[in-house]
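Q: What changes when protoporphyrin IX containing FE is included in the input?
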Amino acid sequence: MAAITASVNAGGGLADHIHPEPQGFFRKYVFSIDHKIIGIQYMITAFLFMILGGMLAELIRVQLMKASGGIMTPDTYNEVYSVHGSTMVWLVIIPLLTGGFGNLIFPVQIGARDVAFPWLNMLSFWLFPPAGLMLYASFLMGAPTAGWTEYPPMSLQGAAGTSMWAAAIFLIGVSSTMTGINFLVTILKMRAPGMTFTRMPLFVWGQFVTAPLLMIATTALGAALAALFVQRQFGVAFFDPTRGGSPLLWQHMFWFYSHPAVYIMILPAFGIISEVLPTFSRKPIFGYKMIAFSSCAIAILGFMVWAHHMFTSGLAPALQLPFMVLTMLIAIPTGIKIFSWVATLWGGVIRMTTSMMFALGFLATFTLGGITGVFLAAVPFDLHVHGTYFIVAHLHYVLVGGSLMGVLAGLFYWYPKMTGRLMNEKLGHWAFWLFFIGFNGTFLPMHWLGIWGQPRRVAVYDPQFQGWNQVASWFSFVMTAALVLVLFNALWSIRRGKKSGPNPWNARTLEWQIPSPMPYYNFKHVPSVFAAPYDFAEPLPYKGLEEELKGGPPPVPAAH
Amino acid sequence: MPENRDPVVHLDRGFWIATTVMSVLALLAIVFWVEVPITGLMPEAVDKAQQIDALFRFLAATGTALWIFVCGFILYFALKFRRHAGTPENAVGVQIHDNNKLEMWWTIIPTVFVIVMAFFSIKIWAGIEFAPNNTLVVEALGRQWYYTFRYPNVNGEVKEMHLPLGQAVTLQVSSYDVIHSFWIPAMRLKADMVPGMINTLEFTPTRAGKYEIICTEFCGTFHGEMHSGTNQNPAYVYIDTPAQYSAWYARTQRQQATASNAISVPSTSQLNLAGGDAKAGAAVFSAKCSACHAIGPFDQRIVGPGLKGVLYDPAHPDLVNGQKATPENVAKILQNGFKGSLGQMPNQAQNGLTNKDIVNLVAYLKTLK
Ligand code: HEM
Ligand SMILES: [Cu+2]
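A: The predicted holo structure follows.
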């Protein structure tokens, strides 16, 4: 205790605390407490699950090539899309954006040497692979079939794997909650001297507004999952209307989590985009404060709109009205962000790296997803398309065209910080175009399929929809090829990529001012900050970075 | 010091040309959405469909226009401000941070737009939610995996839905088992069928014809077939002329005269199958099941299949409903009944089984190896 107090008092708060680097493969790479290693662990694990989830996605698209189905029984098909959705939401997008990029980058961006609770961080990560394996183990006992939303009473009829699903997602929820607490405390307490809130990089802002969502919303999900589990295993009648329960109770609890969760899946991606655009335009981000504050507004409003997923469920008119209007209001802060990003390009010196291409692709597709989101907020239109392929289109435009494109932009951008090497740009450009074309070809037709009458979550459909479904399926192969190319690129570049040096993009946030890959202790001496990070025409706004790029670790304080 | 681009905000000729091109495209998109003949693709079969389509046209037109501007500017800026081959490594863009006037405008304009959209939506929404009360009340009930309907003064439930043209209807929907959702695309309306709850849809049919009903809430194995397409129980609503409707109604009333009014609600709760008494189960079996099921191999059929080895037969790893032969799934068939190619098996209530009976029966079936 005394030692910790001493080091707190010695300099820039907790951030000045140095542990000697642990030795041995297991302590260094497996049970690591270093936020950067944990971030990479999250990313590798999540990419592995993305391969599984992607294979399930292709099974879905192959099944739907023919109106009468083809390769699977309806029950298998139902298992496949349910696990696909659950994987992509909980094992891919959320872990990549919070545990993955969050851990890897934001502590360095605020000048900290680690997150506030490194051991808790390790525990958060180590709950994640077992939870994922549990989800896939459910295939052995009859996987859940009612989609990632698992509405009861349907999910009460599901095979034993549904209980396994609930347990797995619960574990992921515990892990998310711990990550949220950890990140929030880190950002509040461990910023380097001078790193005021208005000097924080926007990626840090993204993580900062996401952290409370992780903590608060996930709690509601945990309660819902526990109730589902208890009803399934012990027959307590939470959701059984014949015994006084309510099927809608689940929907309220589920969406009280899952609407904010869609912001957990997009706000960190907003953060990534807000780093990539200024760096490759060599311009300050336009409207820094508006972007930061609109994230807060979105996070707060995100808690007040969950029932827009339930407009058809028999919600009282007196409730439909406020939920409709509040949902529409989210369009305003979202619009402000998009306009600011576009304005950031104006007058820049734009470098078309792969990362930048993904960021621009993000702008185009996320905007479309946001616009259809506003459509859905209008209750009369939602009455028509709820539960159809229009929803599938909308949610993939925001989750894939938004979050996943953000992830890819971030991957190409920060890859040198992980490995010391650049990813191959030529392959990257190919991957971008294949992805962009494949993605739009897959999901754009789903808008009209839904409007014309194809319901979601069906293994067979009316023959008149076969043509557009085939289009979607063929393009989905293109999109998958693009992702395989990205994966190949990432693996190939670990050894063969061009050496990057510390700052290949000439970027200005703190992580670029230290060597690549980043050293164990992040900073030899915690720097101090005296201005915002995006003024490309000014000298760097940091003091105390002179030592960073020289060899050798920092002196360990005598107190240790 | 790095070389600075001109810090003055120039809206040069290229900008205005690009903006003009985008405006023209946006205008074309708006004209398209206003003019596109939606009724050709999807008939508007009730009064409200037109209003909902009007709202859709409005949303689609403004949405597409907005999207064209966003993408257009991205494309234009990306091309115009692209770094050229000879640009020095440390060249920087215009160092502006914000522009209060611009930001004010792009906050105010979307806000106004949201207000307009909200008003438009609320107006149409109110028309949908608060309808006249002098209406024909029809009940629609969801089941795994078909719909039935109840009409005033008609005994029991019927399989077809008929509505008279021009008569205001209140549709009350509910479900016997899991949540279904009742969607008629030609009416643009939908309501979830939630067990234990009655939801309503109110409208006036305005166009005669036969229209598909589609379930849009996942409801189990054959959810995908819970519409007209491939289903054994095709689901349609027939909008008849008043004369046709009265004829149908009279005929149905006669046909249904002897039908039982109460179709029992099957239980869907999960049973705890531990600790069943196989002996008691055997007794229940001979009393309630042996009329239709032999204790012999699968192919030895009375009405339903033979049940010897039902949980063990490697030739029949699945039950007749396509689910795996597990004790839980067997219990579900006992609870819910099943209608398949071999005929109709009654559900728990129709068969007069208590939950305890089912638990015992499962224990008994487990002993039939
Ligand atoms: C910001 C990123 C967003 C994400 C990640 C996202 C994600 C989703 C997802 C996953 C669903 C599917 C629900 C289901 O399974 O049925 C959905 C539905 C919906 N979204 Fe979004 N969304 C986003 C933005 C928006 C915006 C900006 C709006 C409105 C302003 C919006 C409005 C809606 C509505 C009203 C629904 C309900 C549709 C229905 O179920 O009928 N969303 N969204
Ligand atoms: Cu259904």
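Observations recorded in class: Strands of chain A lie at 528-529, 542-543.
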